[in-house]
Amino acid sequence: MSEIPKAYEPGKVERKWYAFWLEQGYFTPEIDPGKKPFVIIMPPPNVTGELHLGHALTSALEDTMIRWHRMKGEPTLWLPGTDHAGIATQVVVEQKLAKQGLTKNDIGREKFSEMTWEWAKESRKNINYQHQTLGASCDWTRDCFTLDEGPSRAVRTAFVRLYNKGLIYRGERMINWCPRCQTALSDLEVEHKDIIGHLYYIRYPLSNGEGFVTIATTRPETFFGDTAVAVNPEDTRYKNLVGKSVILPIINKEIPIIADEAVDISFGTGALKITPAHDPTDLEVAERHDLPLVNIMNADATMNENASSYQGLERFACRDKVVADLRDKGLLEKTEPYSHSVGHCTRCWTMIEPRVGLQWFVHAQPLAEAAIKAVREGKITIIPEHFTKTYFGWMEDIKDWCISRQLWWGHRIPVWYCQTCNKLTVSVDEPAACQHCGSQQIVQDPDVLDTWFSSGLWTHSTLGWPEDTNDLHYFYPTSVMETGYDILFFWVARMIMLGLEDTGQIPFHTIYLHGLLRDERGEKMSKLRGNIINPIETIGAYGIDALRFALTTGSSPGNDINLGKSKLASSRNFVNKIWNATRFILRSIDAEVIKGKALPTAETEKPQRMEDRWIQSRLNRLISNVAQLMETFQFGEAERQIYDFIWSEFCDWYIEIAKIRLSSNQMTPSPLPFLANTLEKSLRLLHPFMPFITEELWQSLKQRLSNRSQMADSIMIAPYPVADDKAIDPEAERAMSAIIEVVRSIRNARAEHKVKSKEWIEARVYTAELLPAIASQAKAIQTLARVRPLAILNRQEKKPDEEKALVLVLREAEVVLPWAGMADQPAAKKHLIRERDATEARIAQIDARLKDNTFLNKAPPHIIEGEKQKLSGLEDKLKRLRLELSQLG
Ligand SMILES: [Zn+2]
Ligand SMILES: [Zn+2]
Known about the structure:
This protein has 27 helices and 29 strands. The protein has 889 residues and is α/β, with parallel strands linked by helices. The strands form ten sheets. It has a four-stranded antiparallel sheet. The protein has a four-stranded mixed sheet with strand order 10-11-9-12, with helices on one face. Helix 1 (10-24) crosses helix 20 (691-702), helix 16 (565-594) runs parallel beside helix 18 and helix 17 (610-631) runs parallel beside helix 19 (672-686). The longest helix has 30 residues, at 104-133. The mean pLDDT is 92. The structure holds zinc ion (2 copies).
């Protein structure tokens, strides 16, 4: 048997096993009508996306669920894919063209599409490779792209069905418009930033010549589009002006003064200009008062013919000129600096121009009603639960969804306009002629659909809908939708609406939302802060398993996750700990085999010795906890408990005790079967979290087990451990925890009194019922605490203070360490006195602070609480120091 290498080399091991799993076809499930499948459809990363830690987190969590269910024997499908990402991709390709001094118009729609496809193909390859690097066990044979023929047909079908039901319509609505990208944007593609601008106070002369109304605005250049001035009906300042009119300066146009409750009395002068074609709130006011809409800008945000002589000026240049001209006319009362939030295009950071445009919309409210019902009736569960409220809030207030985009990259809107009869033909397949008059003079709508329209169909379009495929039949509804909480509304809610609408069934029964990644100090990661962790470098330095473990351990659904070097390093230490422990166990097995002994099996006989009973009991308790935690989506906690068990109970205690047994040559009974069994099950428990190292070590262990022919070919298809309640042994657990406490307390005392690690000290342990159990571990206590001679005695035998000794009072025992054997007494005494005096001084200090009223009044409660805790800690310490001093005499 070849010995495993001294150090773990993640890169080599990761490549080897991923290739093996792929080759064996483990990632592709078999359709078995007798079994309920477990299905996750991967949130498709944008083709523009480079691998970042967010992907690594999503992938780690989903792979954990998938591997766990697969090991439970369920047909398990994790379907991967990528999103064409509309505007984001188009901008990238446009930037490439710009470097050659070209625009998309120079090369035309067809050539542009070709270029974009090429780029997307390359990018998809990279993204898939990156997922494979992360160990994602998804079924690559079902890999999907939003622009593939299947999903594209689904998009057209969904569009036509909604149109025929009257749930898709074309209309003039307020949209977020990017003048640079020249397209409508979804709310998600707009980021609001605070900017410092000005509030301009402008006088509008009353048409009856009796003075002015002064309005305050941040956008004086839009006054050409004003169709009213509005005041609040409760505002006494303007009561007698409502119903009268003002004359717009420069263009001398008369507009009415109206009263509307939406006007905030405290803002500016209390009088607002109403520009319905360029402001969403103004549009609502205009609809209530039946005001006309006047569009004053071109698509590129230059002024149009409605801006009189200002036509052709860019919007901000126009602002400067308008302000100067109003000032000249004495109509600019004043300006003041003003900070406000303004939407920007997230692709090019151009300021959004809200405008009314002719666009396609989904009438979302009826779809939302069904989606609300599905969650309210418990058919879909959101984890963590508190997001349910957010979800209802959004869905109950849903607005119609603008789905047309003035882009070239995406799903073309399946609508053809007839140039003969002017009617629309809406069709899944390209029509040869107008449906109404048969004319062949038809032109397809030039726009494409919002990316979220195709990703909203993702759970069913990837499984073959609208065809009634075997996949759709078997794998839909899917099981869990796992994603970041930031896209619950933009994406998850849309999948629920469209999934229900298209298939009549919910798309998934559980939504699992993870938090956002932050740095070690809890700060958001950003290029500006310079705290971004590069995943490729991280994988190189720590390995995938350590990265995955650091990302997810201790995390809980919906809560943000802090990640930094120390967490990564501690995960890597864990990987090394498991590696070294396994290496020890394998070498011990090999040593026995050389001596002619048979290989152990991983199936143990009933344990006789106390520590064997104990490790079996702890292991089975862990298995049962983990099952319960995984069922309730508490993966981070499950991971933490597995970590604690392996690190502490198994490695630090059981293996250390086993080492003593193995080296003493008194091998009856041998601990090897229990070492092998605990290791084998621990590796299986850990596999969904750390797939690579567990496979590597499990395979090496398997070769050394006599029952290997009955074991699976890979840990990833071996069964997930199931707890054996019969192994739970409270008696052994109680005794071992007493023994651990004895060893720990002696080690602490040694460290505190600076006893050299090689030195032996004398110890006596007094105990009651546990005497036989503790006595059976005398050798372990001796070795692990380095105590000699060691006496384990009945409590009743203890004589009162017969000598100078340190006494440690524990839950189940009392440990007596004679000073004579442990420390240089005068020096120890001096040290203790110094410590005592310093502690008394600190206590006096804090005590005084806590009695000081100025401090108590000024300090925030958590600081005061902290001081109180410090005080009580110091008082405990003082008590202990005094006791030790008295024991020292
Ligand atoms: Zn833009
Ligand atoms: Zn026609």
